[in-house]
Design brief:
This protein is an alpha+beta fold and about 350 residues long. Among the domains are: about 175-225, DNA polymerase, domain 1 (Orthogonal Bundle), CATH 1.10.150.20; about 240-350, DNA polymerase, Y-family, little finger domain (Dna Ligase, domain 1, 2-Layer Sandwich), CATH 3.30.1490. The chain has helices at about 10-20, 45-50, 60-65, 75-90, 115-135, 145-155, 170, 185-195, 200-205, 205-215, 220-225, 255-275, 310-325, and strands at about 5-10, 30, 40-45, 70, 95-100, 105, 135-140, 160-165, 240-250, 280-290, 295-305, 330-340.
Length: about 350
């Protein structure tokens, strides 16, 4: 059984800002475009309701929604959060193809045998991302990359859809032809001119009708319209993060005990960096309470490093910042990680 999952984080940059700043939740948030000449990097779903989209001039976005809140992008932070997302992927499969900072294909063909298996893995992944990172993802699953990607976009945000092989045509046929990958505005216009408005119409049209509009690519477009796509998931072999986690037999109730384990884990991360000839730019802290709520925090450093103390110090600072707001400490899992890995940092970018 060929089983491909496409995961697309929902309004990723804007969702991270809303997660980190509770006062932004439920409000139209625009990342980027702080200057009049700037462009929108991302928009929350509340902002999208006004027609605001990424790559749109900021001036246009302000006219569409004068109440929109514009925030400066924190791209190093988004990369750190992305590393946590990809770590969740890696718990499911080693066959991961990252498409962008917030999007990836996962090949689960070796893990699943039934539709129930696939849906269970999809639900678990979404739950893991939500509980550990406080973010939502849309997941599309199918026997091909093409259909999985269209499925993930079908019910955003927070969607979960599995399209079995026997349902592919029912799923694709009603869609506007412009939704088919590779059909841009120009190609869509040519197809509209000959009366083809849906993917199903493209699939069923005679080649004699399509060739004048699509040229030598007519057969390939028809194959896509039928959901035919044998592209393999190209596994991303470049390591994105290194982490150490400890699940405790008994809960810890003091910050001193937590810091002791952080010291050990930071040293283990540093040793693995040294073994692999890598340096890291970002550190991560993960704490899970006795009630199974999970906190994750990260900090991007001024320069790449692999010294254990350079890892330990900022992670302990993150733990102490968390502890200040706790009336009672009860921790059952502790994790320390590093990401933003580089092999040959510049001399001036090295700690």
């Amino acid at each position: 059984m060929r089983a491909i999952m496409h995961v697309d984080m929902d309004a990723f940059f804007a969702s991270v800002e809303q997660r980190d700043h509770p006062d932004l939740r439920g409000r139209p948030v625009v990342v980027g475009g702080s200057s009049q000449r700037g462009v929108v990097a991302a928009a929350s779903y509340e902002a999208r309701k006004f027609g605001i989209r990424s790559a749109m001039p900021a001036a246009v976005a302000r006219k569409l929604c004068p109440e929109a809140i514009f925030v400066k992008g924190r791209h190093a932070h988004y990369r750190a959060v992305s590393a946590g997302v990809f770590e969740c992927f890696a718990r499911i499969t080693d066959c991961i193809e990252g498409i962008s900072i917030d999007e990836a294909y996962l090949d689960l063909s070796q893990q699943v045998h039934t539709q129930a298996d696939m849906l269970a893995i999809g639900r678990q992944l979404k739950q893991t991302i939500s509980s550990e990172l406080g973010l939502s993802a849309s997941v599309g699953m199918a026997g091909s990359k093409l259909v999985a990607k269209l499925a993930s976009d079908y019910d955003k945000p927070d969607g979960l859809i599995w399209i079995p092989d026997e349902a592919v045509q029912r799923f694709l046929d009603p869609m506007p032809v412009s939704r088919l990958p590779g059909v841009g505005p120009s190609t869509a216009s040519k197809l509209h001119d000959i009366g083809i408005l849906t993917i199903g119409q493209l699939r069923l049209s005679p080649l004699e009708l399509l060739t004048p509009a699509l040229g030598n690519h007519a057969v390939a477009y028809q194959a896509r319209a039928a959901g035919l796509d044998d592209r393999a998931v190209k596994s991303e072999r470049k390591r994105r993060s290194i982490s150490q986690e400890t699940t405790l037999n008994e809960e810890l109730h003091t910050l001193d005990d937590i810091e002791r384990i952080i010291h050990q884990q930071a040293g283990q991360c540093a040793e693995r960096l040294l073994q692999k000839g890598l340096f890291a730019r970002t550190v991560h802290l993960k704490l899970r309470s006795a009630g199974f709520s999970t906190l994750t925090r990260s900090r991007t450093l001024d320069a790449a490093m692999r010294d254990p103390e350079r890892i330990t110090k900022p992670v302990i600072e993150l733990a102490r910042a968390w502890a200040r707001y706790q009336t009672r400490i009860s921790v059952r899992l502790i994790g320390v990680g590093v990401s933003g890995l580089v092999q040959h940092p510049d001399r001036d970018d090295l700690l």
